[in-house]
Amino acid sequence: MKVKRIVANIHSHDIELAKSFYQDVLGLELMMNHGWIATYGSKDEMNIQISFASEGGAGTVTPDLSIEVDDIDEVYKRMTDAGFKIEYGPVNEPWGVRRFYVRDPYNKLVNILAHNKN
After folding, report:
1. Is the pLDDT of residue 118 over 80?
2. pTM, two decimal places
3. Potential cystine with 63: which of 41, 55, 94, 111 (Cβ 3.0-4.6 Å)?
4. Who contacts 31 (Cβ-Cβ below 8 Å, separation ≥6)?
5. Integer angstrom CA distances of residue 89 from 33, 37, 97
6. 99 - beta bridge partners?
7. More confident position, 40 or 118
8. What's the pLDDT score for residue 5?
9. CA nearest 37: which of 65, 7, 64, 66?
10. Rounded to whole angstroms, what are the CA distances from 98 to 9, 18, 32, 73, 113?
């Protein structure tokens, strides 16, 4: 048996709010929309991971989601230009990532990160 995919499901009464954050700013594709559920993603192969945490690291609260990107500074600019609330960072963490926390349209705390290039 092999796990093929893990999907985060965020309950919402207004699924259209996701478009501005997840599609317009982060650039994810709308993969499916049945009216009651909209799924954003990428056709690129990604790693399957699920994390369990007592905190978010560096004394921060545990984020609801973590999203790894290739250009953290570009995503930070796009988030602030779009008016999304940054709650932490951007900061270079001692464990080798640069990251920031931002609230999505559903008030979920999202950890946006990129691994530092060595």
Report:
1. no
2. 0.91
3. 111
4. 39, 40, 41
5. 33, 31, 12
6. 91, 113
7. 40
8. 83
9. 7
10. 26, 24, 31, 9, 6
Q: Is residue 77 within a helix (H) or strand (E), and if so which, with residue range?
A: helix 72-81
pLDDT in tens, 11-30: 999 999 999 999 999 999 99
Strand partners, 32: 39
- The span from the CA of 46 to the CA of 42, in Å, is 8
Sheet strands (E) in the chain: 29-33, 38-41, 65-68, 86-92, 97-103, 109-115
Joined together, the tokens standing for residue 108 give 């979920």
Place of tokens 């609801």: 64
Torsion angle of alpha carbons 85, 90, 93, 97, nearest 10°? 90
Q: Is the sign of the CA dihedral 37, 104, 49, 115 positive or negative?
A: positive
Cβ atoms of 70 and 114 closer than 8 Å: yes
Q: Please name the amino acid found at residue 81.
A: D
